[in-house]
Structure formats: structure tokens, C-alpha cells
Amino acid sequence: GLTPSIVSRYSAFVLDQYGVLHDGAKPLPGAVECVAHLKASNKKLAILSNTSAAPEAALERLYSTLGFAPGSFDVAVTSGGECSKHFREKISTPDKVTKVLLFTWSGEEAKIKTSSFLSSLGNVEITANPAECDVAVAHGSDLVLGDIDDLGGEVEHPLTGLRWNCEYGALDPWLRELSSRAVPMYSANPDLKVVTSNNDINYMPGVICKRYESEFDGAVTYFGKPHKEHFLACSEALGVAADQTCHVGDSLHHDILGANDAGMSSIFVGSGIHRDECMVEGKVDENMLGLMIQREGGDSVAPTHAVQLFKMHED
Fold it and tell me: How far apart are CA 85 and CA 101, in angstroms?
């Protein structure tokens, strides 16, 4: 875990969510107490997350559902929030409707979040017709949201096999039609996969974007990690220089790479997405970690510190 000597080096911490603070359903061991300790030590705290949720929604869930004390975090920057901001400032205009083909999530709770996300984009209209959309947005990986049907419900076109097995059979026809018109895609969540509370792997909207780029030569604009602008947005919002800020995350490619590019120190949490590659008997194995770092990119993905969990530990 984090030691007092590590904590004392930095004025601010930028925290990932999944794999660091919680597993999607409950806080991870020691995380609530660790956040409280940092707050009591007068450290400034930011959430930086590749969630398609708005910043306000991400914070509210941490406080109301996951047990973190209200007011623990000074600011939140989410990929969904940055995508929405870009749409409002660069794409959506009051005098012209932008037609959006939306890859999103299934479920009743997800519908509420999807509706909120669409409202945040500005003057947009949903279409499930790749021949008429202006843009595509990767917000979730369960389905393509269709037109409003005669009963007032939303028609859904499932992406069978994608979220749970990373199977592209249902996805590729959509991407093929989009690429035939060179439709630009925007990523509201660039994560490729996450570990759920049941230790399952969920494949995320980032796989849609990577597939569009690699197999169909599509153009994708990404928001969130590992792009350094989003790390620097956190340090700027906190009023702390990047070299006095430490990012905590569990992904070498999204968290550690982005922190290094932004000039931040980093803490790699081994029990997250890379756990099978770097942990033995519940502890980070230094030899395995070193081999993984070299395999995945060398110095560009090398963290400043490595811990098993985001929790406090004595020196």
C-alpha cells in the first residue's frame, strides 16, 4: 500500500476509479480509508476516469453508493464529460441538428444515463441508420440505440458477443457501413476492458474504436486517458503543478503512460487489470512486473511506485 513517505512527496493525487477505488459494485479494501487519510493530510484529490458518465454523476456515485465521504474529491474529469464538452463547443450548433449513431449500454439504469449523456451533447438526434448519421459515438458496448418506435420506446440493436467475449460478428457490419462514408467516431470511454466485481472481464467501448481504426481505417477522436491533456486538466483544476501531482491507476497503457507523458509521478496498483501478469499470492512480484513493463512499452509505461492495493501501509 501507500506509505507515509510516498504520501509526503506530493501535494495532489489524481485517482482512477475502477481497479483503484472500487470494482464497479463496492469499494476495494482500504480505499475509503486511504482517501480519508489523504484528505486529512491536506492533499488535493481529483478523479480522472474513462467513464462515459458526467463528472457530477461520477462523484455522486462515489458518495452515495460506494461509501466515500461527501466532499472527498476536489474535482472530477471524465472522458464522457470531455466528449460532451467537445460536442457543445465544436460540433453541435443551434441551427443544425447533428445526427448521431450511438453505441451504448443496455438496462433500465443505463437508459437514464444515456438520456442524460445525449442531452449534454447539444442539438443532436439519434439515428440507427449508418447511411444518414453525421457522426458515431462509442458510449457503451452493448447495443446501437435506434430510432424511437411507435410505442414511445427506444429500439435497440444488440451487439451480441461483444461486451463479454470481444466477438465482432454483430459489430463489424455497423463499422463497415460507417467506414464506407468515412463517418468520424468519437470515444466517450476509451477503456478496452475492466475487471468486474465477479472477476469477469467486460470489454468496453474502446474496443469498438480500436476495431474501427485497425480493421476499417476509420477516424476516431479520443477523450480521456492516456491523453496527457486530461491529466493536465486535473492538475490545473487543482492548482498544483504536474511535477507535484501523482496519478494512481491500474492500467499501464491508460494510467501510467498518460501520467508519464504529462510529467506526473505515478503509482501502479497491481491488483487491477494486470493482476494475472504481475502478482503472486496476493503481492506484486517485482520480477514479473519488470518483465511486463518491458513487454508493454518499457520506460514509457514504467511507474514511479507499485503497490498491491490503494490503501495505507506503514513504512
Answer: 18
Grid cell locating 99: 445526427
β-strands 265-269, 44-49: how paired? unpaired
Strand partners of residue 193: 203
CA atoms of 17 and 27, how far apart (whole Å): 10
Indicate the helix (H) or strand (E) that contains 92. none
pLDDT tens track for 166-224: 999 999 999 999 999 999 999 999 989 887 778 788 999 999 999 999 999 999 999 99
Q: How confident is the model at residue 152 (pLDDT cuts 50, 70, 90)?
A: low
Report the pLDDT value the prediction gives residue 248, as an integer from 0 to 100.
98
Dihedral sign, CA of 50, 52, 58, 61? negative
Nearest Cα residue to 68 out of 15, 118, 112: 15
Predicted confidence (pLDDT) per residue in 50-85, tens digit: 989 899 999 999 999 999 999 999 999 999 999 999
For residue 246, give the nearest of 233, 227, 231 by alpha carbon.
231
> What does the alpha-carbon distance between residue 193 and residue 178 come to, in Å, rounded to a whole number?
23
Residue where the block lists cell 496498483? 269
Residues 6+ apart with CB under 8 A from 8: none
Which own/partner contact pairs does 113-120 have at CB distance under 8 Å and 24+ positions apart? 113/52, 113/53, 113/57, 114/139, 114/140, 114/145, 116/54, 116/57, 117/52, 117/53, 117/54, 117/80, 117/84, 117/188, 120/54, 120/81, 120/84, 120/87, 120/88
Give the pLDDT of residue 150.
55
- CA angle 207-195-275, nearest 5°? 110
Instruction: DSSP letter for 89, please.
Output: I
Q: pTM for the complete prediction?
A: 0.84
Q: Which amino acid is at 108?
A: E
